[in-house]
Structure formats: structure tokens, C-alpha cells
TrEMBL record, chain A:
InterPro entries: SusD-like_2 (IPR041662), TPR-like_helical_dom_sf (IPR011990). It comes from the Bacteria. Transmembrane segments: none annotated. This is SusD/RagB family nutrient-binding outer membrane lipoprotein. Keywords: Lipoprotein. It comes from Chryseosolibacter histidini.
């Protein structure tokens, strides 16, 4: 009897355990990470992608270009390697991944989610896509585009020819401009648009400025296209014309939100970077008043108690100046606490581009006004007061006028474009490849195959490893298509 | 509950003595159990026992490992003396298999190896897993570093899973409850700093107390763990903790050990040349040691990085002197007692350790209470409860400017690290390097602390329905809270303004098991043991990770004392999974010499899509004791068993992989970083991982053939196993080209095979009078192969830096290294040497990165010897490994910078790289006959060595074969009469040492062949800024009363 009661008690105890038998569906439906949604709003994607583009242009890619264009000099680790033109496929991995996996994929998502009812969003997305892709093809040459960002549908995107990419990009840009001009814009990103706050008119100006840049880029290969296109743009005259309209993303002063060059140069790798002595000498030669905004003299003064900027020569030869002495990056490049913008296209840049066009394909006489305005706008953007700004400008105009040929005038123009683009080194690198100006000597010691400044970047090593359609690795001294 | 000493009217007290047939000596520790119940006791030091049995027909079962079990009916007797004879078969021993099920070893159709508590106790370490090294064939345990609290990477029979390092280890079970042993880091930036560890992040296996361990069963291969389900797809390590002694007595054991640790292997430095390049002092901030020869100039001096003149001389011990002598002090007290029906044990342990890195330490407190009791109505209860408190203090390691080991191994030979101040008068660091922290400064100003409170417990209720039918319900939990604080001080190179990160983990796992057991005999020849079960597991880890940047008051490490507080993107639910399983296993025995067992299990996992959530997997095993069957009994072969088994195990995915999600953006790495929210702007970016809502479970299928033989009257036993395992439909995250818009996608793909053999030979080598010498040899050989990955994919990276590191490559063993190779002449295979230009006389880089090494060993073996003479015992264990590569960044950089010995040999003479001449663009130069021209271009030693070295490349791969004296112990137990006069049960003194001798000829004695600081199975063999291992010397005392 006792045994039976015991057995019953035990069975009753075990019943609750039994009810758990079997796979109760609800009990197992817990496989969604509460912090990572499967659907988001386009405005969230837009903010993220704009910061991502700024990060792309402001971080490693800028440092490489800045080493090539001799704005900065490397004193240790990777930046020293770039300074000596020691760039390999693995150095392109992060930037390449950012372009495709980060930026282009998110832009595609914005267009997909927006559909046809939100042309303001899709227009903005197209402009950003064209900007990113044009920069990418400028540095890498032939790259995937038509078959890219297809996910599982195509795991081996083929590499398109640069010429085809440019043709495609012009079409996309025009489509974008048309969408930006539509009467019913759909959703407006507002403050989520960190660049123009949802102002479609400003986006159109940026798009036109981008188109100008791209047409100019092709002038060595297709002067007709460039001439016709740019003349049409000049007639419409709807470019970025004031610094308030600059196409840029501004960073913040808080940790992990600062301009990546600030993070690098001040927070984590101050021992790796110095200002290029060549750039300092070049600015000083022309008594350029912007130098104090580009750099900080770190307490160093010369005999007459004027600020002295201590840099380092490109090539990594000799002992770099110590941390206590070397010139540091200044508020124009990185902000006082990291809040500098990453500039994509500025008003000054537009003027210089128009000057270059005039001197090469257009009416040469128009160039002087553009050149003068370019300097003015740059000075204003930097924050130089009108007195010193005008002094410098007049001196440069004198040199411009003294230059005999259009080619010589172009040289003067491009020298000033270079001096104004210290925070847009990749742009300067493209300019130098296209025009040959400013005239730069390669780094004193370098491991480039021909001893010259590189003219392109190697393909991403991981892309080549994982994509069987990819071509073989390329060398940094092989020109891209438009670099004729 | 029956109180001690009382006897009820229906019961009877039985006493007696158990002796060994061979010599009549009393046998302590013999189990005396009332058959069919859980009531029992254990004989004391003289072999006496006392037990209370219910009246009526009771039978006492006397069993002891190595002896033949005897059953004796009580029949009203009050005194029963028993003689036990040695078991020539040694196959009657009972072992713990899955879920605490006990089975006789002879019935097992699969490979299982057993280690008892003695073998892991007092072995000059406080880490249970470290003391298991070399003791089990096929079980590979790698200490992650020599720092206190550093965890271990545990593998059984090679690597089977491509996804995630935490999915390759065996399931670790303590008293029937699986416990968490995963590894994850706190460091902010994912990428190389996280892979290679920002601090001594251990896994929680370090919480276990070696003195609590009664026995460890290692179940290898899928069959051995088919009853534990998917978490044991790679095998299981089943740890049983000590229970009480019982028998109406109260006894205790006090153990105490004191161990010294010293740094084991450091690079062999040259001390002839100091800081500089090209034989001159070119820079005071360089790590190069290619400068002037010491003594070339009398009273030589240089100007240091502060502008001061300092003597220029060698400091041969500047790296070695950085390390402290470590101290480890462990104390344990165990009290146990009980009656015939109840046993309990209370164990208290304390470990205090300081490590070889200044400021590093670990303290651990273990409190354990366990016990069981049996009622005469057939109900028995068992419970155990563990509280563990572990506190670890360390400093940053791995690949970052603040890591102690970033620059320490390569400081210039002329740099007086210990003899200089570490800070300048203005409070900033004083160190020659501008991109790395002074290691001494870093060890004190970048502290990493981890405090863990852990509770592991289980309770079970069993009921014996009838003699052959019982049921058990067991519930267990593993709950811990780990609080990490990672600090970078103001002026650290990594975070100039300082940073504090608080990373708090809450982990809880609940386990429920319901079993029905059948143990019945049918007639004389058929026996049946079967189990049916239901299992449920709910495991979850939540994480709160907050970071404060910019310390305001430099010494207050509180996030509120910082300028900006942000929440790390990994904040939130880290892991959540639920598993339900039902299973059944039946073993049918025929005449006690032929056993067939089959099992089947069906699991449901929350991490797989609804349609594919349920999966079933079976297994079958056969065990044949042919010596019994054919009545073979010779002087040579006394026992023999053949076994064969086939098993399948499924496995699920990591949580949250079935869909493509959007994540909060976190751009950049340890050099520059941008996080969201961006000011007051929120953002999401699409994850780079393509999710998959058609995921299926993984499957591992294995065959195993084996034999166990007793030779020479069981003086020797040989256990041999051959296994062949296939793991397919791996749920892996495969790399895809970034141009697709993603960087990886989750899919079922891949087929990895592991084939190998395991051999265990053990026995008595010599026995003469009181002298005895036993030896054991373990040998294992595993061959892994990545047979196939996925459609169109031939390789995927597992770990390392962008493009170089460890990879799974189709057609290659798992985890091979891919790194840059130098160009070679396709005709002769000779290296190409550039014949002109800036790089004249050096090597030409290759086109692509290629496979340069294989971290998998050819074989592993260990030799364990135990000699005893009267009260003395002497034991020593050698572990050896043949093959297995390490790719060493430390040796690579030390070579490039001219610090190591090899680079000083003939440094003032010209060097010529052996190879053939080529142009800078890679064309081989040919002579008139069309043959290549051997290189004769002389270069300086500096150019020569720098051509080969720096970072991961083909020349930084080294064969890590080694022989190591793993353990050596000399002990003495006081004689019985002396001990009795002290009113004690036993006193034992010993000295032991660990890892004190190593022979690794191919590493130049520069790095430890076993330590590579990247923890985990996927990063095997990658060495980058690793922390050295240690050699330990200890004295131990054990007193039983």
C-alpha cells in the first residue's frame, strides 16, 4: 500500500516534467535578436550611409592619397609604408569592402524601400551612388558595377571597364537629377540628411557639380563629351557656388564620432604621421595664409618669433621630429576636437574645375575669373580674413597673368587647387594624374615598381581571393583608362 | 531519513572486513552496496566496513576498480568478511557515460577514456584542464597563455566546425550539468585586436577546482555523446565531483600547495649590437637593433629619445627582467561524512595567484556542498551546489599599441627598460617608442579586471519502481555574472585621453533531464539495459557594455568619471537558445560477452528555421569480448574485446542567423572609429552577413573500430581505436566577395573529415617486492581534410588579418596558413633575387598569398610513468608532438629588427641570399645557355635578414615539434603506523613541477611551441604578440583525517 502511494506520488511529481515533451512551437520561437531589426526606415539608412561615405573619404583612403600628394608624411607603421609607395592588395581590402558591402548596398536598400513614391530619397541615393562609384573607379580602374550588389544572385560579379562604368554613371546621375526635380518628392529626410537637410535644390547643385567633375575627368579621352556637357552645365549655371552649399558631412567632437583623421593623428597613431616638409615649404614659399589653419605649429617659432611648422620629408629617411616638436594637423583638416567636415565637393573646387575646362577645352579668357573666385572661396572656407586673403590672391593673379601659355596658366591654377584641397587628398591625386600638376618629385626612398608616384591602387586582395571572375592583381604604376 | 548509528527493528547491522586475495591486506575504498538500492558505504583504511541492511533477503555487492566484483547474500549474518581477487580482465570496471549513467566498460562499444581525481590533483597548476594535458589520447588542450586566469583551448579529435571558435570544443559536464566554457572578448574594435585578445580573456573553465574532481571521463566521437545531444557533437568531458565517504564516519582531507612560476621561453637575443640602422644610431625612437657594435667605441654613448646622453651598452636581460616570479598558493579542505544511506561532502577551496606579468593575479574561492541520501522505499536524492568566486587582474595583450607584448619582445638591445623611469616629470610615459606603451607602464596603468560569481548546481530525484525499473528527474543550472572592467590609462598609446569599459555578462543555463532506466535480465544469457529520456535546455547570455572615454581624474576608473559615455554596439542579448530533446538507448547483452547497443535522439532547436527545426539521429555499437566467448585464456592474452560503432550527431546554428538584419553602424577599427548614434542622429546599416531562412542542421557521422586487450595476465592493457568522422552540411559563414554587397553568408556547406587513430598502452613495467613501476603511453594521430566548401568557393578565412592567417581551403587540412610567399623561378624553384634598382639583392614579392603552413600535428604522444617504493612515489610525464606549424609574428619581427641571435652571426660580413637573379619586374635573368644565374649580389646582413622577415609570410612559419617534460612529481606518504599515532588517516608530501624542460628544435628556442595567444580552435598556430608560457615548481601537502 505504502509502495503504491509512493509510486503515485512520484508519478504526480513527474507529470509536470512530461508536459514539456515534444517541440512546443512557441517555446522555440525566440530566434530574433531584439537589437537587430529586419526592417528599418530609409532615413536611418541615409544617415548611416552618409557618415560611411565621409568615413571612406576621410580615413585610410585619404591618408594614402595624402602621402602620394605629399600633404602628409609617414613616420611609422602603415602610413610610412604608403609614403614609400609600398601599397599591396590587403591595403585596399577595408576601403573596397566599405564601398560595396557598406555604402552601395545601403544605397540600394534605400532605393528598394523607397520605391517610386519617394523620388527625393531615390534622387539623393543616386547622387551618392554616383559620387562613390566615380571615386572608386578613379582609384581602382575597372571594377564591378553592373553585376555588383546582387547578393546571392551573383556571387562572382564581373569587373566592368571604366569607360562603361562612366557611361552608366552619367545615366544614373541624370536620372537622379530628374527625380530631385519632381513636384511630388515623397518622404523628406529632414535632419536625417546630414548634408543638405532634405533640400532638393541644393542636391541638384551638388549633382551638377559632380557631373562637371566627371566630365572634366574624361577630357583626355573624350573631349567632345566633356566640351558639350560642360558647356551645357555652364549655361544652366546651377553649381555649388557658396561655401554654405558645400557637399560635405560634418563630424562631431564626441569620442567615436570624430573625424577619422583626428582619431588617427591625435588619438591613436600620433607617432605615425607628420606634415610633409615639402608641403610646408611650398606654402611658405608663397606666404600662404592658410597654413595656420591647416596646421598647428606646436609651440615652435622661428628667429623672429613667427610660427614655424616642423615637418618631415616624404620617403621616411632620417629621424622624424619628436612629438613635442612636430607640426600637428589643424582645425581646417580635423577641427579643434574632431568636428571638421569631410568635404566631397566644395564651391572653390567648382571654380577651379571651370578654370581648368576653360584653359583646355573652353574659352581661355574666362579662366581668370574662375581662378580668382576659387581662391576667394577657399580662403573663406578656411577662415582667412579678407586682408591676407586678398594679398595672397593678388600675388597669385600676378603670377597667373605673367604665365605665357594656357599650359603655364593651367600649372598655376592646379598648383592652387592642390593647395586648397589639403583635406581632399584623393581629389588632388586624381587631379595630378589627369593634369600632371602640381609637379611633384617622388618620395626620396620608395618601392614603387618604377620609382614614381603610384597612379592607381591595387585591387582588394580578399576580392581577388573570393571572386573567381576577378582579374589578376594589378601594379600601382599602371594607369587607369581616363589617364591618357 | 535514517539517523546515524540508529538501527530500526526491521534492519540489521552488518560489519566485516574486505581483504585482497593476493596478500590478505585490507582494501580501503571498496564500495559496499545493498543490491538494488542506492544504499551503501565504503571500507575504511583497514578494509573494515559497517552497513545497515533492511531485513529480508538482501545481497551485498562488493566492488572496487581492478578487482572482481563479489555479491554475497546477507542471510541473517552480522559479520561478513570478503576476499576480493584482482580482475584479470579489467573490463568489469564501471564508468560514467552520458548523463551520469554508469555502464560497465565491457559493454561499451565505443571509445572512452578515464582519468581519476588523483591524476589531476596537486599538479602545480590550479586549472583542471591544464592538468589533463597529455592524459587522454585524442584530447588536445592548449593553454592560451601563462597569465593567471588564462583559459584553454580544448579539442577532441581535431576540428569539425568551420563556424565560430566556440563550436568546436567538447561539451563540459559537471555532475550531469553542462557548463559554459565559451570565449568572447571585450575589446571595442572587432578585427585583429579582438581576435588576438586585448587582455587575458579566459574561458570559464578556469573556475573549476582540481581538488573537487573525483573522475573525468572523456567521451570522444559522435557515438560517445549521442545521448547528450547536439552540444556534444564534438565529444564530451564528463567531470564527476567527489561525494562523501559514508560509513558512519566523518572524515576530511586538507590539501595545500605552494607553486612558483617563472617565465618559460623567451626569444634568444643577440647582445652585440644596439639601437640603430646600418651600424649607426639613426634614431632614438626606433625598435631596430641594427646599430653600432657594442664596445666599438670606448665609453660609447647615445642620445636617447628625451635628448639625454645615455651609455650605449648591451642589456642582455632587459626583456627577461620585466617578468616577475609568479606565486600560486592553493588550499583546500574537504569534510565528508555519512551513514549507509546518506553521504555528504563540503569542500572549501581557495586559490591565490600572482603571475609573471607585473600586477597580474587571480584569486578564486570555491565552495561546494554535495550529498545524496537513499530512502528504503526506493527514493533517493542527490544534489550538489557550487559557488565560485573568481577575480582576475591582468593587462592588455595582443595586437594593440597598449599591449604589454606589442613591443616588449623587440625592444632594442641597448634599451635599459628596467633601469629607466617609466614616467617623465610631467606625468607622461617615458618610452622610446611613440606608437607603443612602455610595458611596465602598461602593466600598471591599463588594468583589466574580471570578477565572476558563479553558481553551478543540480538536484535529482530517483525512484526505484521495481528491481529493474527506475526513473530519475534531474534539474541543473549554471548561472554566472562576470563583470569586466577594461581600463586604458591617460597617456596610453591606444587611447590617449584614457578609456574605461564596463562589460557585464549575465549567463544562465537551465537543464532538465527526465530518465527512465531499465536494467533487466532475461534468463541466464540475455541482459538488457535501456534508458528513455527527455531533455530541455534554455541558455541565455545578456550583456551590458558601456564605455567611457576621456578620463577626467586619471586614477578613478568609473565611467561617470569620463568625458563621454557611450554604449557599445554589442550591448543587449548576446545569445539565447532553447533545445528540446527526446532520446532512447538500449544495450542488449548476450552471455555477458556480446553487447549490442542502439540509440536514437530527436532534437528541436530554436536557432533553426521553423521548417527545419527538428532532426533525428541514431547510432549503433557492438562490443564483443572474444576471450570470454571462445574461452580463450592464455598467459599472453588474458582479455580481449573488439568494438565497432557507427553514430550520427546533428548540430544547430548559432542564434540569430536565419535572417539578414540591420545593425547599428560601427565603422572602423582600432585606429579610427565612428559609432552611432551620431550625435542625436540614429542610423542602421545592413549587416554584411546574409542570413538564411533555409538553414538545415549540420550532421557529423562517425565510424569507429577498436580493440581492448589485456596482455600477460592483464599486466598490460592495450586500447586501440581507429575513427573516421565526416562533418557535413556545416552551418558556416562563408566569405563572399565584397562586390556582392555583403562580406559573408550563412549556409549549409562544406564537408570536413577527420580520420585517425588513438592508442593507449598501460601497465606494470616492473614489480619487485615493494617496488612498482607503471607506465602509460598515449598516442594519437588525426588527419583533417576540408573536402569541400561550397559551390564556387575554394577557400574561406577563419581568422587572422586581412588576407593572411588561418583558412579552410578545399583539399587541404583544416586551418592551414595563407600568407605572402616570395617569387620563385618556375623552372628551378629557387628564390628570385632582384638584380638592380633600389631593392637590389633582396627578394621579389610573390603575386598572391599561398598556403605556407599547416598547424595540425602529425601525431601527439605522451608517456606517463609512476614509480613507487614503500611510501615513496615518483612520477613523470613527457608530452610530445611531431609536426604542426606555428606562424610566428614575434620571430618574424625580431628578425626584421635585428634583435635575435641568428641575425648577429657574421653581421659585419656581407651576405648573399641563395637564389637566382631576376629583374625588378620579375623576369628571370638567363645566361647564354638559357640557364638561370645563381645570385651573387652581396648585401649587408641587415638587408639580408630584412628581406625575409616582418609579419606573417612564408618565412615566419616554423615546425613546432616538441618534447616536453610536462609533469614531474616526487612524493612520500607517511607510514600507516606513524600516521595512526598522529590520529590521522594519511599524510602525504610531494614536490611537483610542470613544463620545466622543453625541446623544440625548429623554433630556435624563441617561443613556446604550445602557446599562441589567439584563443580558439580556428586560430590554431597563429602567434602574434603572445604572452609566454610558464614553468612551475611546487610543494604539496595532503593530510587526511
Amino acid at each position: 500500500m505504502k509502495n503504491t502511494i509512493m509510486k503515485i506520488k512520484v508519478i504526480l511529481l513527474l507529470v509536470p516534467a512530461l508536459y514539456m515533451l515534444g517541440g512546443c512551437s512557441d517555446y522555440l520561437d525566440i530566434n530574433n535578436d531584439p537589437n537587430s531589426p529586419t526592417e528599418v526606415e530609409t532615413r536611418q539608412l541615409l544617415s548611416a550611409v552618409q557618415v560611411n561615405i565621409a568615413f571612406l573619404m576621410g580615413n585610410d583612403l585619404q591618408r594614402m592619397s595624402a602621402a602620394f600628394m605629399q600633404y602628409y608624411a609617414g613616420t611609422n607603421n602603415q602610413l610610412l609604408a604608403y609614403d614609400q609607395y609600398n601599397v599591396v592588395g590587403t591595403d585596399s581590402d577595408a576601403n573596397w569592402g566599405r564601398v560595396y558591402d557598406g555604402i552601395l548596398q545601403d544605397l540600394k536598400e534605400i532605393e528598394r524601400i523607397s520605391g517610386t513614391a519617394n523620388p527625393l530619397y531615390t534622387g539623393i541615393a543616386k547622387v551618392l551612388k554616383v559620387y562613390t562609384m566615380s571615386t572608386a573607379t578613379d582609384v581602382w580602374g575597372d571594377i564591378p558595377y553592373s553585376q555588383a550588389t546582387s547578393g546571392l544572385a551573383n556571387l562572382k560579379p564581373k569587373f566592368d571597364l571604366q569607360q562603361e562604368i562612366y557611361t552608366n554613371l552619367f545615366q544614373t546621375l541624370d536620372a537622379g537629377i530628374s527625380e530631385l526635380g519632381q513636384a511630388t518628392p515623397g518622404l523628406n529626410p529632414g535632419a536625417a540628411d546630414l548634408i543638405y537637410g532634405g533640400d532638393a535644390a541644393k542636391w541638384v547643385k551638388a549633382a551638377n557639380s559632380l557631373k562637371l567633375k566627371m566630365l572634366l575627368q574624361l577630357r583626355l579621352r573624350d573631349s567632345n563629351l566633356a566640351t558639350t556637357g560642360i558647356n551645357a552645365l555652364i549655361t544652366a549655371n546651377n553649381f555649388i557656388s557658396t561655401n554654405a552649399e558645400n557637399f560635405q558631412v560634418r563630424f562631431l567632437t564626441t569620442i567615436d564620432r570624430q573625424h577619422p583623421m583626428y582619431d588617427f593623428a591625435i588619438n591613436s597613431r600620433s607617432g605615425d604621421i607628420a606634415v610633409s616638409q615639402r608641403f610646408i615649404d611650398s606654402l611658405n614659399q608663397l606666404a600662404d595664409p592658410r597654413i595656420g589653419f591647416y596646421f598647428r605649429n606646436n609651440g615652435q617659432v622661428d628667429g623672429s618669433n613667427n610660427p614655424k611648422y616642423v615637418g618631415f620629408n616624404n620617403g621616411g629617411v632620417g629621424t622624424p621630429p619628436t612629438a613635442a616638436v612636430r607640426a600637428l594637423l589643424g582645425p581646417y583638416n580635423i577641427g579643434a576636437s574632431g568636428e571638421a567636415p569631410q568635404r566631397f565637393i566644395t564651391a572653390a573646387q567648382v571654380q577651379f574645375m571651370l578654370a581648368e575646362f576653360s584653359l583646355t577645352l573652353g574659352t581661355a579668357a574666362n579662366a581668370r575669373a574662375y581662378f580668382s573666385k576659387g581662391i576667394e572661396l577657399s580662403m573663406a572656407d578656411v577662415g582667412v580674413t579678407s586682408g591676407p586673403a586678398d594679398t595672397y590672391k593678388n600675388a597669385r593673379l600676378a603670377t597667373y597673368d605673367a604665365a605665357g601659355t594656357n599650359e603655364a596658366k593651367l600649372r598655376v591654377t592646379m598648383r592652387d587647387k592642390w593647395a586648397s584641397q589639403v583635406s581632399q587628398a584623393t581629389e588632388s591625386w586624381t587631379d595630378w594624374r589627369r593634369t600632371g600638376y602640381p609637379m611633384l618629385q617622388p618620395a626620396t626612398v620608395n618601392s614603387s615598381p618604377d620609382g614614381q608616384i603610384p597612379v592607381r591602387l591595387p585591387y582588394s586582395a580578399t576580392e581577388l581571393q573570393s571572386n573567381s571572375e576577378a582579374p589578376a592583381q594589378t601594379l600601382v604604376n599602371l594607369k587607369v583608362w581616363w589617364d591618357n | 531519513m535514517i539517523a546515524w548509528g540508529q538501527v530500526r527493528a526491521q534492519e540489521q547491522a552488518v560489519t566485516g572486513k574486505v581483504t585482497a586475495v593476493e596478500d590478505g591486506a585490507g582494501l580501503p575504498g571498496v564500495n559496499v552496496v545493498v543490491k538494488g538500492t542506492a544504499m551503501g558505504t565504503v571500507t575504511d583504511v583497514e578494509g573494515n566496513f559497517r552497513i545497515t541492511v533492511p531485513s529480508g533477503s538482501s545481497t551485498l555487492v562488493f566492488s572496487f576498480i581492478g578487482y572482481v566484483t563479489k555479491e554475497i547474500a546477507v542471510d541473517g549474518k552480522s559479520i561478513i568478511d570478503v576476499e576480493l581477487g584482482q580482475d584479470v580482465q579489467q573490463l568489469n570496471e564501471v564508468v560514467v557515460t552520458a548523463i551520469g549513467l554508469e555502464r560497465e566498460k565491457k559493454a561499451l562499444g565505443y571509445s572512452l577514456q578515464h582519468v581519476n581525481g588523483e591524476q589531476v590533483s596537486q599538479k602545480a597548476t590550479n586549472n583542471v584542464f591544464e592538468s589533463l594535458q597529455g592524459k587522454v589520447a585524442g584530447l588536445s588542450i592548449n593553454q592560451n597563455s601563462g597569465a593567471p586566469g588564462a583559459g584553454s583551448t580544448i579539442l577532441i579529435r581535431g576540428v569539425t566546425s568551420l563556424s565560430g571558435s566556440n563550436r568546436n570544443g567538447p561539451l563540459i559536464i559537471v555532475d550531469g550539468t553542462p557548463i559554459d566554457n565559451s570565449v568572447f572578448g571585450t575589446d571595442a574594435a572587432a578585427g585583429s585586436a579582438e581576435v588576438f585578445g586585448s587582455a587575458a580573456m579566459g574561458n570559464r573553465g578556469v573556475d573549476l577546482n582540481p581538488e573537487d574532481v573525483a573522475s573525468v571521463s572523456v567521451l570522444k566521437g559522435p557515438r560517445a555523446a549521442a545521448l547528450y545531444g547536439i552540444r556534444a557533437a564534438n565529444g564530451a568531458i564528463v567531470i564527476t565531483t567527489k561525494r562523501g565517504a559514508g560509513a558512519n564516519k566523518f572524515s576530511g582531507v586538507v590539501t595545500s600547495s605552494y607553486t612558483l612560476s617563472k617565465v618559460n621561453i623567451l626569444p634568444q637575443y643577440q647582445n652585440e649590437y644596439g639601437q640603430g640602422l646600418s651600424f649607426r644610431h639613426h634614431s632614438a625612437v626606433s625598435s631596430n637593433s641594427w646599430g653600432r657594435r657594442f664596445g666599438a667605441i670606448a665609453n660609447d654613448s647615445i642620445v636617447d629619445h628625451n635628448g639625454k646622453k645615455v651609455p650605449y651598452q648591451a642589456y642582455p636581460n632587459n626583456v627577461k627582467d620585466f617578468f616577475d616570479l609568479g606565486h600560486l598558493f592553493t588550499n583546500n579542505i574537504q569534510l565528508s561524512g555519512g551513514s549507509t544511506t546518506t553521504k555528504f561532502i563540503l569542500s572549501l577551496g581557495r586559490t591565490d595567484q600572482t603571475g609573471i606579468i607585473p600586477g597580474s593575479e587571480m584569486e578564486r574561492t570555491n565552495i561546494r556542498l554535495a550529498g545524496n541520501t537513499a530512502f528504503e522505499n526506493g527514493v533517493s536524492l542527490d544534489g550538489s551546489f557550487n559557488y565560485i568566486n573568481t577575480n582576475i587582474v591582468g593587462s592588455p595583450q595582443g595586437n594593440s599599441g597598449s599591449s604589454v607584448f606589442f613591443t616588449l619582445p623587440v625592444i632594442p638591445r641597448s634599451y635599459n627598460l628596467l633601469g629607466r623611469p617609466t614616467t617623465k616629470p610631467d606625468g607622461t610615459q617615458d618610452f622610446y617608442s611613440t606608437s607603443s606603451d612602455n610595458p611596465i607602464w602598461s602593466a600598471t596603468h591599463n588594468p583589466y579586471t574580471s570578477k565572476t560569481n558563479r553558481f553551478i548546481g543540480s538536484a535529482s530525484l530517483s525512484y526505484q519502481f521495481t528491481e529493474w525499473l527506475s526513473a530519475t528527474y534531474k534539474a541543473g543550472f549554471d548561472i554566472y555574472n562576470e563583470s569586466r572592467k577594461e581600463v586604458y590609462g591617460v597617456n596610453s598609446r591606444r587611447f590617449l585621453t584614457g578609456q574605461v569599459t564596463d562589460d557585464i555578462f549575465n549567463y544562465r543555463s537551465i537543464e532538465s533531464n527526465f530518465l527512465i532506466n531499465i536494467d533487466k535480465e532475461f534468463g541466464e544469457s540475455i541482459s538488457l539495459k535501456a534508458t528513455l529520456g527527455h531533455n530541455l535546455n534554455d541558455a541565455r547570455r545578456d550583456r551590458s557594455i558601456v564605455r567611457g572615454s576621456g578620463l577626467l581624474t586619471p586614477t578613478i576608473y568609473n565611467v561617470l568619471n569620463t568625458q563621454t559615455v557611450t554604449v557599445d554596439p554589442r550591448n543587449g542579448v548576446d545569445f539565447h537558445r532553447r533545445l528540446i530533446g527526446v532520446f532512447g538507448e538500449a544495450t542488449v547483452g548476450y552471455n555477458d560477452y556480446l553487447f549490442l547497443s542502439v540509440s536514437g535522439r530527436n532534437d528541436w532547436s530554436s536557432t533553426l528555421p521553423v521548417d527545419n527545426r527538428s532532426f533525428f539521429y541514431p547510432s549503433a555499437a557492438l562490443s564483443f569480448l572474444f576471450t570470454d566467448a571462445f574461452n580463450i585464456s592464455s598467459n599472453i592474452l588474458s582479455a580481449g574485446k573488439l568494438r565497432v560503432n557507427w553514430a550520427q550527431v546533428g548540430n544547430d546554428a548559432d542564434p540569430f542567423l536565419t535572417r539578414t538584419v540591420y545593425v547599428i553602424p560601427n565603422y572602423g577599427n582600432n585606429v579610427a572609429n565612428v559609432n552611432f548614434p551620431f550625435g542625436s542622429t540614429g542610423g542602421f546599416t545592413q549587416s554584411g552577413v546574409l542570413g538564411n531562412n533555409k538553414l538545415k542542421p549540420e550532421r557529423t557521422t562517425g565510424y569507429e573500430y577498436g580493440a581492448e586487450l589485456g596482455l600477460f595476465k592483464s599486466r598490460f592493457t592495450v586500447d586501440f581505436t581507429y575513427y573516421d568522422q565526416r562533418s557535413e552540411d556545416q552551418i558556416i559563414t562563408l566569405q563572399v566577395p565584397s562586390s556582392t554587397g555583403f562580406n559573408s553568408y550563412v549556409t549549409n556547406a562544406g564537408l570536413i573529415t577527420n580520420k585517425g587513430i588513438e592508442v593507449l598502452v598501460s601497465g606494470n613495467v616492473l614489480k619487485a617486492g615493494d617496488f612498482k613501476w607503471d607506465a602509460t603511453i598515449n598516442f594519437s594521430r588525426n588527419r583533417s581534410m576540408v573536402v569541400k566548401l561550397a559551390e564556387g568557393l575554394t577557400q574561406t578565412q577563419l581568422a587572422g588579418f586581412t588576407g593572411t592567417g588561418s583558412f579552410a581551403v578545399e583539399g587541404q587540412p583544416f586551418g592551414v596558413f595563407i600568407a605572402p610567399k616570395f617569387a620563385r623561378d618556375p623552372q628551378t624553384g629557387e628564390l628570385l633575387v632582384i638584380n638592380s634598382g633600389v631593392n637590389r639583392g633582396t627578394l621579389l614579392p610573390g603575386e598572391t598569398d599561398e598556403v605556407v603552413g599547416n598547424p595540425n600535428p602529425d601525431w601527439n604522444g605522451s608517456l606517463i610513468n609512476t614509480l613507487s617504493y614503500k611510501g615513496f612515489r615518483f612520477g613523470f610525464q613527457f608530452d610530445m608532438q611531431k609536426g604542426g606549424d606555428i606562424i610566428s609574428n614575434t620571430i618574424g619581427f625580431a628578425t626584421q629588427l635585428g634583435s635575435i641571435k641568428e641575425t648577429a652571426v657574421d653581421r659585419d660580413k656581407p651576405h648573399i641570399i641563395k637564389g637566382v637573379q631576376a629583374t625588378p619586374t620579375g623576369a628571370v635573368v638567363l645566361d647564354d645557355q638559357g640557364n638561370s644565374i645563381p645570385n651573387n649580389i652581396q648585401v649587408t646582413a641587415e638587408t639580408y635578414w630584412r628581406a625575409f622577415s616582418g609579419g606573417f609570410n612564408e618565412f615566419s612559419v616554423f615546425d613546432a615539434s616538441y618534447i616536453r617534460l610536462r609533469e614531474i612529481t616526487l612524493g612520500y606518504s607517511l607510514p600507516a603506523n606513524l600516521v595512526k599515532s598522529l590520529k590521522l588517516q594519511g599524510v602525504d608530501l610531494s614536490v611537483s613541477a610542470r613544463n620545466i624542460w622543453t625541446y623544440a628544435p625548429n623554433l630556435g628556442h624563441h617561443i613556446d611551441p604550445e602557446v599562441s595567444n589567439a584563443p580558439g580552435a580556428l586560430t590554431r598556430g597563429l602567434e602574434f604578440n603572445s604572452t609566454p608560457g610558464v614553468a612551475n615548481y611546487g610543494v604539496n601537502l595532503k593530510v587526511s583525517f
